[in-house]
UniProtKB/TrEMBL annotation:
The gene is ispF. Keywords: Isoprene biosynthesis, Lyase, Metal-binding. The record marks 35, 134 as: Transition state stabilizer. GO terms for biological process: isopentenyl diphosphate biosynthetic process, methylerythritol 4-phosphate pathway; terpenoid biosynthetic process. This is 2-C-methyl-D-erythritol 2,4-cyclodiphosphate synthase. Belongs to the IspF family. It comes from Vulcanibacillus modesticaldus. GO terms for molecular function: 2-C-methyl-D-erythritol 2,4-cyclodiphosphate synthase activity; metal ion binding. The lineage of its organism: Bacteria, Bacillati, Bacillota, Bacilli, Bacillales.
Length: 157
């Protein structure tokens, strides 16, 4: 059985928050606002996995009005979602993701993000692809107001 899922997430950039993307802290003057650490890439990936499993989205599994998960590390969200996939007998064939941000530049951080994600998904680095793009200074990402991410996964069992 082969299942495909896609995910999307966006968070606002604000002062006095750490910028964490793909499980990696990135030095920057702003961070992403959210109930968790607001890691847009891991949120999009978790949503993609849940989509492939036909099990809703992370808002259902980790609601932003639940005080017990305030500030949760998004790696824990992805680990929980991945455990669900494994319990259902699935393995990852590949994950393809894109970070949409005018700044900061992501290229230097992508190899570490791939390591973090491949470790959580228990797969080879070659099964995890991460790209980054700008929006040519257009829209909220182009104005530096936020960062978005998209993910697609292929699962099999």
């Amino acid at each position: 059985m082969i299942r495909i899922g896609q995910g999307f997430d966006v968070h606002q950039l604000v002062k006095n928050r750490k910028l964490i993307i793909g499980g990696v802290e990135i030095p920057y003057e702003k961070g992403l606002l959210g109930h968790s650490d607001a890691d847009v890439l891991l949120h999009a990936l978790a949503d993609a996995v849940l989509g492939a499993l036909s099990k809703g989205d992370i808002g259902k599994w980790f609601p932003d009005n639940d005080p017990s998960i305030k500030g949760i590390d998004s790696k824990e969200i992805l680990k929980s979602v991945w455990k669900e996939a494994k319990n259902d007998g699935f393995r990852i064939e590949n994950a393809d993701m894109i970070i949409i941000a005018q700044r900061p530049k992501m290229a230097d951080h992508i190899p570490e993000m791939q390591k973090v994600i491949s470790s959580i998904l228990e797969c080879n680095l070659e099964q995890v692809n991460i790209k980054a793009t700008t929006t040519e200074k257009l829209g909220f990402t182009g104005r530096g107001e936020g960062i978005a991410a998209q993910a697609v996964v292929l699962l099999s069992k």
